[in-house]
Amino acid sequence: MDNEKMRLLTRPFSDIKSRPGRNGQAIQYVEGHAIVQRLNEALGGDWSFKVLEHDVREGEVIVLGELRAGDLVKQAFGGSEVTRTRDGKVVSLADDLKSAATDALKKAATLLGVALQLYGVEEPPVTPSVPRLVPPVQDGDEPDVPPGNRLTRRQAEFIGKLGRANGLSKGEMDERAKAQFGTTAAFLTVRQASEFIQALTNAA
Fold first, then answer.
1. pTM
2. What DSSP string runs through the chain?
C-alpha cells in the first residue's frame, strides 16, 4: 500500500463519539459509516468486507469478518449484545448481527491504521532536541515510568492482538520493543505504545 493511502487511512478523526462503558469509564468510538467513508476516501472501490462466520449465543452474537484492501487481508471478530424486550423476547437477531458485523469491520480497519488514535492519548508535538539514549532493560528491571504515563490497558490489549496477527510470540514482541524503545512492551509509555502500534500495523 502506498504512502498516500496510508496517510489517508491513518488521518485522525474529528467526529469522535463517547458512550458509557464498564466500571463507569467512557468509551470513545467512531461510527461505522465514518469508517466506511474513510475506506472509500483512501481506497476508492479497492476494498471489500464479508462475514466469514457467525455465532448466536444466549446473550450476544459474534461474527468473524474479513476486510480486503488491495492485496492486504485483515480478519477480526466483532460482537453485539442480543437485544430483548422487557419480557425477555428477542427483538431482532438480524439487527444484532448487523451491529456485530459493523464492529468486526471497525476492528479489522484498525489493522490498517484506521482510528488508531482511539488506542492512545493525543499529545502535543515536542520540539526536536538531542535524542535521549534509553538504556536497555535488564531481566528483572522495571523502567522508571510514572503510572500516569504508562501505556493504557486498551493499548496493551491491542498490541497483543497485533502481535498475534503478525505471528509473534510475547518474547519476540518484547525484543522488538527493546530494539525500538529500550524496554519491554509492558513498560512502554503512552506515546511509545502509539508508535509501536503503528509499526506493528504497518508490518501486519
1. 0.58
2. --HHHHHHHHSPPS--EEEE-GGG-EEEE--HHHHHHHHHHHHTT-EEEEEEEEEE-SSEEEEEEEEEETTEEEEEEEEEEPPB-TTS-B--HHHHHHHHHHHHHHHHHHTTTTTGGGGS---PPPPP-PPPPPPPPPTT------GGGBPPHHHHHHHHHHHHHTT--HHHHHHHHHHHHSS-GGG-BHHHHHHHHHHHHHH-
